[in-house]
C-alpha cells in the first residue's frame, strides 16, 4: 500500500516539478508534530492491548516502541503524498487561492 502511495504521488515531483522535496525542512516541520502524536498513540494502544499488528501482514521489522517499520513509513509517505497532491493542484490551477 505504501508503494502504491509513492508511485501514485511522487511522479508529481518529477513531471509537474512541485518542489516539495526541495523544501525538506518545511516538510519535516509540517509532518513531524502529527507523526509524533500518532506514533505515541500507536505505542500506547499497542502497549494497552487495544491495537495490534497481524504478524502475517507485516514485514517483521520493528522500530522504537515496538511499532512495525511499515507504520513509521506510513506516517512519513502518506503526508508527503498529500502535500505533493495539493501542490500539484496549485500548480495546475494557479487561480485557486491558498491562504497563508
Query: What summary fits the major beta sheet?
Result: none
Number of extended strands: 0
* SSE run: HHHH
- The proportion of residues in beta strands is under 5%
Number of helices: 4
Overall mean pLDDT: 91
Taken from the alpha-carbon principal axes, the silhouette is elongated
Gyration radius from CA atoms, angstroms:
16 Å
Give helix % range. 55-70%
Q: Structural class per helix/strand content? A: mainly alpha
Report how far the terminal alpha carbons are from each other. 32 Å
Verbal overview:
The protein contains four helices and no strands. It has 100 residues and is mainly alpha-helical. The chain has a domain at 28-91. 10% of the residues are buried. The model has no long low-confidence stretch (mean pLDDT 91).
Features:
mainly alpha; 100 residues; 0% strand
What's the short story on this structure?
The chain is mainly α and 100 residues long.
Topology:
Blueprint: H1 2-9, H2 11-15, H3 24-48, H4 69-92
Helix pairs in contact: 1-4, 3-4
